[in-house]
Amino acid sequence: MLKIxxxxxxxxxxxxxxxxxxxxxxxxxxxxxxxxxxxxxxxxISDCDAMSKILGIMGCRVVxxxxxxxxxxxxxxxxxxxxxxxxxxxxxxxxxxPMLMRFKQAKLARPGGCDxxxxxxxxxxxxxxxxxxxxxxxEEYVYCDAxxxxxxxxxxxxxxxxxxxxxxxxxCSAVGRSVIRNCAKEPExxxxxxxxxxxxxxxxxxxxxxIVVEGKGKTFNRSIIYTxxxxxxxxxxxxxxxxxxxxELNVKGVKSEFFSSVLxxxxxxxxxxxxxxxxxxxxxxxxxxxxxxxxxxxxxGFPTDMQSQMIAYLAIADGDSVMVENMFETRYRQVxxxxxxxxxxxxxxxxxxxxxxxxxxxxxxxxxxLRGGASLVLAGLVAEGDTYLDGTHFLDxxxxxxxxxxxxxxAQIFRL
Length: 416
Ligand code: UD1
Description:
By secondary structure, the chain is of the alpha+beta class. It has 14 helices and 23 strands. It has helices spanning about 20-30, 45-55, 85-90, 95-105, 120-130, 160-170, 185-200, 230-245, 260-265, 305-315, 335-340, 370-380, 390-395, 400-410, and strands at about 1-5, 10-15, 35-40, 60-65, 70, 105-110, 135, 140-145, 155, 175-180, 205, 210-215, 225, 245-250, 270-275, 280-285, 295, 320-325, 345-350, 350-355, 365, 385-390, 410-415. The radius of gyration is 21 Å and the shape is elongated. The model has no long low-confidence stretch (mean pLDDT about 95). The site of uridine-diphosphate-N-acetylglucosamine (UD1) has 23 residues, from helix 1, helix 5 and helix 6.
């Protein structure tokens, strides 16, 4: 449980670690490589622990020491991913592509993760079938056989981040040219392609609509050192923390272009933002103003992973705002908790109508997903009195010691 006493402004520098959504697919992609990989800047978050556990079950060695992570897959053996493991984390689905390259087969329990919507994997599976992978499903498991895998032209029904990444990896196993269209364009996809290319893959076009993979059909065999990109969602969360509480932060190590959709919302609205080579300087100068509409969309649109935190910002803005969540069906689960803290928010389907209030007040609240938890932390930082936040294991999935970071910036936040 976290105890947060609101009211302190935040001042100082914050170093942003590697992005969860880059590190997880990159960790799984190590299975496509029969040599050691050293990853730098890896955050200490429980999703990385869960992925280490999955790799461990496959016979791989993962050593996470400081911010370095050494992964050796030399002794990898085929093993199925049980409901218990897959239930811990949606990203277990990233093992599909690498398992098919390494073993030509995969048996994976349906992936879990934060309960923010239905989260099917039909787009992943449709792409696999296009590549002639035999896919069978029952209630619990997905079974894949890639013995006769072939390159293909694939059109994604929706630009799914995970499906783009998985199919990019699967296409490396099919000898010849695969073309994936209507791809997601998130920076983490570009990062995964860069990582795979440094192992010896040939992937072009990542970050655009169409990705072309010249599959070589063989496991890679290259020892490399790689630093995944920094976490734009963690950076965005701390930027909003500064905007809400007041004060001045230097956000370091992350490219501003990766979260400009977030920075542009607070710039001029409540903050002055200056861009330097090595940092983004954010000075909060006013109480947040309402934003007419904030609409979540695939990158470079406003990220669904910042929606919950932005609602906390709008909850203390002057005026009325509307949030539209277009990506996940049940991503407003933290709203009743914010209401307990005095927020005035009404949810109607994909829309949340936020009437800003002068002050939030401390309360006993519970996080029910990762970003919802972050939004409650932000609310706690500005609330009058004490907030007790339960469900902190959700926060630990994606924020490396958020309490210590905020405390070093001047917040009153303690883990009980
Ligand atoms: C990734 C991110 C997550 C982020 C999300 C959207 C990782 C590890 N996680 O999740 O933090 O919130 O992108 O930016 O990178 N869909 C289908 N069928 C599929 C796949 C997806 O219908 O086979 C739907 C989903 O239910 C959702 C939408 O497509 O409504 C977007 O999902 P997707 O982009 O796949 O998200 P993830 O890869 O799961």
